[in-house]
Design brief:
five-stranded antiparallel sheet, globular, single chain, alpha+beta, D-Maltodextrin-Binding Protein, domain 2
Amino acid sequence: MFSLSQRAMRRMTGLLLLAAASGGAWAQAHTDTMAKIRDSKVIVLGVREAARPFSFLNDQKQPVGYSVDLCLNAVEGIKRELKLPDLKVQYKVVSGPERIPKLLSGEIDLECGSTTNTRARQEKVDFSYTFFVASMRLLTPKNVQVESVKDLNGMQVALSKGTTSEKLFNQLANGELHAKLETFASNGEAYKALKEGRVRAFPQDDSLLLGLASNDKALDTFQVSNLALSVEPYAVMLRKGDTALLASVDRSLSQLYASGEINALYTKWFLTDALTIKMSRLTRDSFVRPNKEAGVAMLLGFSI
């Protein structure tokens, strides 16, 4: 039988353990990030290291890109709403597998990268209006033709961890696809394996594949397949139920779309001497009619 002091000590220990466990889940329970930003006078943007031209580190190791510009525009709106002209912006580089966990843990407030809005991810996080629509395709050497999934049978295929392409191809491997799949930690590692001949195909969003190959000046060596496997709408990712911050981000995007300023930003990042990605009809439609439609696989019975 415990003494009173022992009981009190045991209860206190239990409360401390509960507090420690719940601390990491703060962001999942506490969804008023605008209040946190107001109190701390800091907003933390999650960025990518090499997701060109959306979010990457330049030669000076500074985060830049189309998605970063969109998030910084949203920050200007937040400054006005909270009357915080000196709001400090901090950046945190996140990888594909890290982006959702670091958002949920509160390490970042907005994820400004190349993340596809999917139904599966909607169970954990919220998304802004779509700001770009990509398609999943395959990057291969120019002497490798892929017109259907079956053309990959017997081929070594690189996957990037934590991506929609990894999810889709692992599903395909349980069906008609008989390829040798190898998962890499990042797009950069998967691309390196393709470049070194260790794999023969790399499925990923076409815009990211073009960004990798153009930066490497390898568009004469590699090609992006005509075969499209999915529709991938990109959006800013936020914590689920973070309504005030989401409304602010959506307002900033809708203002860019309505004013036509989005066209100058698109030209800045996608119509350059090094890289040309013409605006797709789906991307244009997302500017004309802002939406949050989830991405889909273009193969019946599969999901991304």
